[in-house]
Batch of 3 targets.
Target 1
Amino acid sequence: MVSVGTTVNEASEKCVAAAGLDGERTNMRRRQSQRWATALLSASAVAGVGCGAKTGLTVPCTVEVVTTKPEVVLVLDRSNSLVDRTVNGTLLIDAVRDAALRIVPQFEGAGNMGLILFPADNDMACGGPARWTVPLGENNGAAMAREIQSMQAFGLTPTWSAIRLAADTLRSRAAVAPNQRRFIVLATDGGATCNEAIPLSECRCISQPAACEARGGINLCLDDRRLSSEVRQLREEGIETIVIGLKAEQESPLFVEFLRTLAIAGGSFGGQEVPFLAAQDRAQIEAVLSRSILEPSYCELGLANGAQRAPDALVADGARFERGVRDGDGWDVDRDHPERIRLVGSLCRHAVSQRILSWDGVWNQRCVMYP
């Protein structure tokens, strides 16, 4: 098979060998074939244009289709409210830890990832700034797993400062490489606090009203407006925030309302505006982490080598998948981002489970190599 990435000499050698030419005739035909390979690989394989109608040796026109290598910041709530129990009776913090430890290693090689646990170490009462637990970068799986393994619940819930730290880093990186996809995955129970600027007249207290009044409204008012404004602004800049709502056995209607508002402000998921991804136990948390981290990383693809037209089929490990989505399974061009290809349904799950980072894209037209 001659692909877009094949050099001119490699292409001509393959075509000559396939034609069974030898001796002086081979040398002459090879020089001619090299000239044709230059034009045909560029015009047909990259642009996807038919190569001609004359009889000649034909080879499949292909292009490499690769994952988009996104940059992902995982922001995990470890505040004291995560000692609440799930519907199965386990602690929320334990369910989050076990689920994250199963998902994070599967991201290796798929892009850049960083971890922010909040509150930061030793920040018991909203007194310190957010800090990177593991800075954004490549091959961070082992370092992130060590931090997640030792994660314990404590303190209040300075969600805004954690999101702002992630946002500042992603914004600075977007200024250098604007076309790379970037997003935040926030897993929290919704009780964002630590905004001293909220006056009591505007306070939506996450506890009994007397508790907020006793503290002057400093720490126990829901920090909803500032946080929603931040993720909405990020979305306008092209950085989405995917919200995972950690639901305890006794969930707060105030938190549920806030999580819905925050998720819609944060962006679309799978091409649609959706409420937060609810998770009530370890299995559900693992499932939504996979959906929010692994699926965008393995199931959103781009064309390599400057190709401008999507192929007709994708091939990996000998299996061929024709373009089109039927009954929620298959692949097609992303409507919102025509430069991307999106895998859906069982094909996406297959890509995640097999950790497929590169596909062969094949056009139905065949490139004609003239001797």
Note: Residues 78-297 form a domain with the Rossmann fold fold (CATH 3.40.50.410).
Target 2
Amino acid sequence: MNSKYLTNHTMKPTVCDENRALYKSTTGMATHSLHSFFIMTMLLASIICSTGCSQAIEQTITLKLKQAEASSPVAGILPTTLNDARIKIAAVGDIMLGGTAEPVLQELGYSYPFDQVRHLLQSADISIGNLEGPLTHHDQPYANKSYLFRTPPELVAPALKQAGFTIMNLGNNHIMDYGAQGLKDTLSALQQQGIMTVGAGSDLYHARQATILSIKSQKIGFLSYSLTFPKTFWATETSPGTVFGHEKKIQADVTALRHDVDIVVVSFHWGQEKSNELREYQPILAHAAIDAGASLIIGHHPHVLQAVEQYKQGAILYSLGNFTFGSYSRSADISIIATAIFNNGQLESIEMTPISVLNIEVNFQPQRLTGQPAEQAIDHIKQLSLRRNTHIEQASGIAKLQSARISMQTNPDLH
């Protein structure tokens, strides 16, 4: 497997040009300290450009500046410094801005679903979600399925960008609903917004590629696998689609990627829909990925929460449930926004913010839970996780897996 370095295609040709543009946009608005920051950044960029800008360095500086600007509580004030070694990765579950949500979104806008929680995504260095369906106007379905999803690319892609997403997982059982053209349109729409993708491609070689992001002098690699039907959605050497997760393939991919990056994150589309119970293969594949060098496993597909598990030096989020999904299903009622915090490449903790996604109440706009509803949601997560011999703590309305517990070996009986 050859990993690839993907660059935000909406960026200027060089770091120098990008930073000059950013600096110009803040003239007359920023404080003296902000001016100094950008001046130092431009000087650094000039040195880099004079010796040849690598894609990894270009993306590091650009991501840092853009995220600082987006997450700043006061315009022009940077909340962190380039010396901060901690990296925050926010992860959410299934996203599908169509279906029964379409009339609401046509009236209120496609950014509306993220209004109450976007600060949690924008405060992270990297935010990832599972895009459940293509962004396309192509109207020829690829397969005979009960549920077919597609949403307008010119509306959804900008909304995802404004929400703060850095990368979208495409490895699922709906991304090929409208065939190769639907996938092609999706890749193009996200690329135009500077959003990276992982988990699907024009053939197996491209679908299996890792996506690597560079930030704060560290490299984070993403892989994705789909364990869901139909089989015709799985890419082959000559056809587009997703990557089926064979255990040996996963281990080989993670092992190879780990040599090139500091942190490996693996997404799995797996499990049984509407069930809190794990299927037998889920822990097997998750453990195999961590044994090969992954630090964080992100799961989705069941539409409901499943257990969180500590395993060796890594953590497994078996299912994050729905996030913004166009359905009035009562079974998908609570979910979490998980923020994994890494310190110098090591997983330090995972903070899980409980949210309501019961659309008959929140009207397709996830709401953070507080008070007793938050406590009940966290207790649900704790009970699910105890089945995997993992203790989740609670503090200030947030569920937390601490670094001291991540470093502990889990029960050998569960391995």
Note: The chain has two domains: 11-71, 86-414.
Target 3
Amino acid sequence: MPARKLSRREVLKLVGTTTVTGTILAACGGAPTSTQPTQAPANTAAAVNTTTPANTATTAPVATAAAAGPAKIVLMYNANEISDAEIADFNKQYAPLKLERIDTDLVKFFSMVAAGTQVDGIRLQGPNIPAYVTKNVCLDLTDFFANSQELKLDDLMPVNDLFVYKGKRYGMVKDWSPDMSIFINKKLWAAAGVAIPDSPTKMITYQEWRDMSGKLTKKQGDQIIIWGTDFQPLNNFLFWATTTWNPPTTLFSPNFDKLILRGNKDTLDAIKFFTDWEKEKGVPSVIAPAATQGGWSGSDWQAAQASSVQYGYWFSGMAESDKVNGDDVMMMAAPKWGPNYTNPCVSGTGMFLNAKTPNKDAAWKMFQWFMAEEPAHNRAKSGWGVPGLRSLMPLMPQDKPWRKQVYDQVQWEIKNTKVAIMQFTPYTYPDAFTTTWSKYHDQYIKGTMSFDDFVNNVEKEVNAAIQDGISASQ
């Protein structure tokens, strides 16, 4: 029997308001390089409960290649994150199942759901999961995980709790990073006469790094040719800062129905610190662009025009270039802001399964293969992300001294970070915050808007989006 098509009202309820729909599209616009996890703002502070409820199913889900129902499986994922060869291997190994890939387009996903068109596995960043679960498009995988021999619960890294909402597990990361680490170019530090830290685990405060940055910066006239500190985290900085407070907190009210900026002095201090740094042109911004034509910190780094950047482990996948020798690369601890040390994952790209998949067992078989078998092994070896499974971590590159140092630093981060993940309100998408923040932030940095108006406008517009999401979920 053909699937029932949803009305326009039902589609809007799935997708949210037109404003939120636009943010979904924006969130999907940029595909990562190689298997690099996409950097996207996320948030919180309160760590998600890592305890998975006991399996209450009378019959454990068992994924079998000969499961009843359609043999076709449709995976919505980026082409540069799963190869044609890997797909061909799956189709050979798990025949008669046939895996097909389509490009990631989350607006199209909701349209496909509305039309009853098959799509089984979907690429998503973990902080979006609460909103997607609220829209009833995510298959509850709690029992599947509880009974899996490939994705054992005790093998899951804590970051996978990005895909846990209200005690139920809806997916996992394909890979991840402790996202607030500092990478330094030791050669540029030495040339600037700035002492390289004795140990990569030695924590420096954000203020100390800011003070150092001027000494690491090189100019020709008014033009910056080497940035001392070259990164543009925008709201990532703000969401991360809240996790370093004691106790860790969030930018939201306790029930996540309101963004609170003006009512929290610590939050305002964090915003002021970083925007002042931008206004003094100590880091790239709308008034002080990146040094290279690539237009972002990564291209500056690869051209040896960035002394330091602040990104996750994934950055090691591009840290070497024809102008940057691996021996000059060092990954350091995140800078210290509040009393707690945290270096959480702020995006955590992974996969969930469509609640309307026509063959849950077949879709789960594909999910396990993608997360634990050949594709997962290939990702782990690439150096673009930390595996989501503890058992795959030895596959991470350690063949060169600098690679071994980066690997060791990741192990240190896992042991020492107080908050492993960030979480977002279920009533709108992280990109709703990003888009609104950027619009008013840039006006403030240019001097065409006051600080109070900048903060007030962001808070007002994001809270409007949250209220729209609450209304749509009722």
Note: Residues 1-69 have pLDDT under 50 and may be disordered.
